[in-house]
């Protein structure tokens, strides 16, 4: 029997797919361009707004006779035992392959923003916590484990990472981002992509592009970003993740920029992404994003018009389920309204990806792994390490921390005894189980209260909730004050409740009017401080909150960004001293709730000055974080000004020594200051960093290999250029804590850069003499 060319694994993928496409009908081609959300609710009680409106009824058996592009979240829609879920997915894949003429299975995709969003799967720290670690290799290891778990149950594609750069911390999805700096987001996000892709899972970059710059920090609001902000802040993380991480999928953003929705923008999804950057993978729609071109953006009058606009722009796959790319598209192609070439282009990309995944091979099998453990011991160990590295000690002015082992501790606050305080909105317990209150979490999630009692068994620990996260009732204040008055120290555990679309204080669709602590938690903190007992503030949040009201009144301040299932022991370990805090802020912490939006990437007129009575200077700067040990930064190589061409490079080195009595980690950060440019520039911006783990007395020498490309920006004509002139390279412990400065002079002509520009500052770490 002769094997058809498209089944022959010895042929190039392009030849196989060309042969397959030549055999397919229009129905079979379009069937590859949409997913089906088997678990989607049609009763109006779905996960997201408009889900009921956008979900259409269909006959499953009839639908799959033409094939199917994707299966949407078979694990992430309802609590499913992982072993049974893997078997059910395999059965569905066999039915799909058996129903069509070509036997092609679907790509199964799932959310994996902070771990596989499935019942009984490890809930890792959220991306904002990854940013707080400043440790890309550790994030890569986490992503590889997530990918292995996805593959073990038959999933091919993960909808992560989020590469949006925070522009306004009131935005509900700040917890899903890595931080407010494009270099930090790009390097950490690229590490995640590498890890997921190394496990054979397709990483999906989102949200392309501009989503986080929505006006007023409202979810899906129009984006007001200018051309240079878009080019120099929004796009670089995506470019890095594609060029260095080799991500194979991109998700179009919901938002519109200057009147053009991303899902209908060929300049973004085709010209930039494919023609300039050379991307060859698939572009998928954010859920219902194609239909939104008709219903929300109103740039299309019909589902067929929305399909036409999206296909023209370059969206290959409609997710989460079929609407516009189904019958409306078929009829529009047959009537001549939509060129068949657009269908062929998208189908070719989808089938090439299926070919890469082995789904076109004759020996393909959907059978899952014989053993499935989505929350293994190894996963939990890694989740603990990530959580521990992500905890930021913001302040400890009098050395109150670590707590004494036999002290009297009053633990107070609505986040102290709630396991969900550890989890972001895309964790399975927060995302799905709130609709299934009868189902247990499926994973062990120690609270801060329980973990602190374990860490300090000789301490006398009492507890009072004090208040709810959002309820204005202050009836619990009296007990909280009484417990605090009896103690030597109060640990106030406050923060967010993750949720979706207004069902929480942080998460998708949970945008904030200002950056005051939710509910009456600020009033509770005032009451606790008024007792005179030293108060340690512990924040479990999805965004930074304004803390200037309590500056100088607290014994210590600890910040954790939804640190995952092992977050309780991690925070307790920092409080007790078992863990030496090493996290650094991926976002600035403001002084006051108003005066926003603000991130540290500000040109001169975005900084404090006499032209306004509002001072936006943060209380704690981007990159800030304290330790229980001390570090000395000496022997900097930047002693004399250096001259180099606009295509040149220059090394800057510094020796960092642990001068304290315990092991710890320091994060050496390199910032660029450009005194004069043809357009306004941020006063400082991160261009490199290196995390160092040092034993007591140990020293290491860090060398940053700066290249002039790293000083580039978008000029008035829209070109990315390197301009001659003076520069400063600032070695710093935060954006506001500069330790050494190297003065450079770039000489020569203005140099225009292309797609091959250098994106990162390479670093080298070598031992230093004691």
From TrEMBL:
Pfam families assigned to the protein according to its UniProt record, in alphabetical order: Fn3-like, Glyco_hydro_3, Glyco_hydro_3_C
Family matches, as PANTHER family: BETA-GLUCOSIDASE
Annotated keywords: Hydrolase
InterPro entries membership: Cellulose_deg_GH3, Fn3-like, GH, Glyco_hydro_3_C, Glyco_hydro_3_C_sf, Glyco_hydro_3_N, Glyco_hydro_3_N_sf, Ig-like_fold
Residue ranges occupied by any Fibronectin type III-like domain in the UniProt entry: 666-735
Keyword Disulfide bond applies: no
Organism: Streptomyces iakyrus
Protein name: Glycoside hydrolase family 3 N-terminal domain-containing protein
GO molecular function terms attached to this record: hydrolase activity
Family: Belongs to the glycosyl hydrolase 3 family.
């Amino acid at each position: 029997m002769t094997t058809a060319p498209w089944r022959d694994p010895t042929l190039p993928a392009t030849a196989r797919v060309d042969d397959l496409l030549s055999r397919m009908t229009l129905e079979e081609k379009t069937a590859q361009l949409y997913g089906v959300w088997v678990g989607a609710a049609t009763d109006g009680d779905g996960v997201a707004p408009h889900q009921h409106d956008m979900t259409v009824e269909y006959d499953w058996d009839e639908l799959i006779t033409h094939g199917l592009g994707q299966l949407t979240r078979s694990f992430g829609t309802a609590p499913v035992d992982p072993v049974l879920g893997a078997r059910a997915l395999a059965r569905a894949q066999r039915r799909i392959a058996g129903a069509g003429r070509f036997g092609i299975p679907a790509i199964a995709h799932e959310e994996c923003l902070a771990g596989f969003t499935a019942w009984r799967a490890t809930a890792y720290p959220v991306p904002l916590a990854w940013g707080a670690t400043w440790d890309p290799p550790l994030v890569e290891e986490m992503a590889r484990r997530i990918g292995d778990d996805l593959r073990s149950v038959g999933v091919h594609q993960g909808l992560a990472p989020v590469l949006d750069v925070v522009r306004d911390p009131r935005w509900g999805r700040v917890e899903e981002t890595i931080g407010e700096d494009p270099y930090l987001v790009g390097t950490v996000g690229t590490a995640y992509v590498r890890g997921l892709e190394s496990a054979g899972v397709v990483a999906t970059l989102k949200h392309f592009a501009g989503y986080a710059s929505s006006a007023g920090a409202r979810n899906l609001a129009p984006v007001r970003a200018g051309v240079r902000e878009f080019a120099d802040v929004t796009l670089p993380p995506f470019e890095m993740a594609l060029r260095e991480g080799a991500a194979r999928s991109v998700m179009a953003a919901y938002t519109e920029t200057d009147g053009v929705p991303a899902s209908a923008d060929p300049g973004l999804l085709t010209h930039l992404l494919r023609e300039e950057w050379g991307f060859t993978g698939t572009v998928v729609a954010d859920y219902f994003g194609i239909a939104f071109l008709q219903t929300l953006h109103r740039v299309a009058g019909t589902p067929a018009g929305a399909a036409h606009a999206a296909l023209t722009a370059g969206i290959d796959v409609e997710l989460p389920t079929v609407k516009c790319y189904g019958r409306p598209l078929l009829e529009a192609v047959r009537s001549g309204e939509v060129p068949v070439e657009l269908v062929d282009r998208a189908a070719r990309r989808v089938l090439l990806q299926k070919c890469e995944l082995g789904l076109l091979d004759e020996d393909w099998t959907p059978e899952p792994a014989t053993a499935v453990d989505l929350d293994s011991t190894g996963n939990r160990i890694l989740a603990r390490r990530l959580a521990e590295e992500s905890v930021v000690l913001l302040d400890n002015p009098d050395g109150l921390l670590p707590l004494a082992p036999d002290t009297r501790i009053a633990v107070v606050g609505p986040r102290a005894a709630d396991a969900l305080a550890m989890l972001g909105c895309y964790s399975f317990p927060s995302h799905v189980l709130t609709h299934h209150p009868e189902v247990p979490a499926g994973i062990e999630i120690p609270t801060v209260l329980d973990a602190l009692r374990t860490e300090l068994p000789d301490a006398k620990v009492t507890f009072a909730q004090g208040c709810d996260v959002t309820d204005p009732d202050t009836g619990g204040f009296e007990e909280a004050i009484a417990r605090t008055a009896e103690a030597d120290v109060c640990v106030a555990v406050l923060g967010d409740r993750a949720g979706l679309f207004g069902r929480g204080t942080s998460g998708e669709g949970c945008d904030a009017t200002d950056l005051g602590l939710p509910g009456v938690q600020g009033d509770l903190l005032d009451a606790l401080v008024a007792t005179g007992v030293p108060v340690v503030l512990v924040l479990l949040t999805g965004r930074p909150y304004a803390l200037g009201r309590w500056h100088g009144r607290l014994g210590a301040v600890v910040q954790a960004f939804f640190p995952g299932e092992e977050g309780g022991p991690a925070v307790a370990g920092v409080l007790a001293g078992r863990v030496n805090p090493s996290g650094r802020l991926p976002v600035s912490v403001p002084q006051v709730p108003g005066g926003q939006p603000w991130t540290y990437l500000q040109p001169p007129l975005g900084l404090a000055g006499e032209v306004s009575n509002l001072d936006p200077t943060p209380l704690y700067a981007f990159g800030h974080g304290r330790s229980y040990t001390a570090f000395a930064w000496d022997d900097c190589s930047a002693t004399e000004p250096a001259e180099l061409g606009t295509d040149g490079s220059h090394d800057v080195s510094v020796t960092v020594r642990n001068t304290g009595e315990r092991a710890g980690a320091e994060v050496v950060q390199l910032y660029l200051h450009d005194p004069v440019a043809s357009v306004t520039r941020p006063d400082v911006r991160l261009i490199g960093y290196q995390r160092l783990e040092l034993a007591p007395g140990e020293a290491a020498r860090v060398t940053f290999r700066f290249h002039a490309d790293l000083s580039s920006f978008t000029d008035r004509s829209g070109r990315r250029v390197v301009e001659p002139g003076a520069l400063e390279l600032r070695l710093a412990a935060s954006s506001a804590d500069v330790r050494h400065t190297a003065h450079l002079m770039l000489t020569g002509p203005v140099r225009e850069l292309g797609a091959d520009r250098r994106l990162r500052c390479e670093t080298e770490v070598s031992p230093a003499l004691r």
